[in-house]
Amino acid sequence: SKRGRGEIADGVARGCYAFALDLVESRRTALPPEVEPVAEIIFHIADQIRAGKVKDAADVKFSPDWRFEKLHRVTENRPANFLKHADLDDSATLAQNELTNDWLIARACMGYDDLMHAMTPEMFVFGQLWFAETDDGPGQLPNELVVRLRSADRLERRRMCLQLIEELKDEKAC
């Protein structure tokens, strides 16, 4: 059977799309240095969004070398690959020092989003907090909120996130 888009292809497509959307919606005026190698692609995607040809990340096509996908599965994505093949070796284990709670929650949220094409308010806010705390890619919150999150201490960040979750739930109820 033919395989779907791999995790690296999906991640690159989502990341480039998110940066492009941030540019289109003026949440970002420049790209960070770490995405400079794909800046031209991001600007092209931004143009395609403005032209109405790209509506979401699924419209962005990216095909990495299959060797990168394989390397990703056996290194970066070991826990997911472990679970996928758990029935083949019931004595296998994962090293706990390779896992963090935030990483596990982030992976679960991404998996849910992959299946449902939507996130709960809690998942959305967790993702934004992740981006604010790690600067690991584009978020979808207004820049001033990201700046406030980044400058607040951990307890205040949590309070701000709880407030945002309640606001998002109230918006959904309307």
Write a brief structural summary.
This protein has 174 residues and is an all-alpha fold.
Explain how this protein is built.
The longest helix is centred in the last third of the chain and has 20 residues, at 154-173. The chain contains eight helices and no strands. Helix 1 crosses helix 2, helix 6 (121-134) crosses helix 7 and helix 6 packs antiparallel against helix 8 (154-173). The protein has 174 residues and is mostly helical. 14% of the residues are buried. The protein has a domain at 100-174.
* SS content category: mainly alpha
Query: Would you identify the regions where 5 or more consecutive residues have pLDDT less than 50?
Result: none
Task: Report, as a whole number of angstroms, the end-to-end distance.
Answer: 44 Å
**Total helical elements:** 8
Helix content: 55-70%
**Main beta-sheet strand count, sense and barrel state:** none
Principal-axes geometry comes out as globular
- The quaternary state of the protein chains shown equals single chain
List the helices and strands and how they pair.
Elements (H helix, E strand, L loop, with lengths): L6 H18 L14 H12 L15 H9 L3 H7 L16 H16 L4 H14 L8 H9 L2 H20 L1
Task: List its salient traits.
mainly alpha; 0% strand; 174 residues; globular
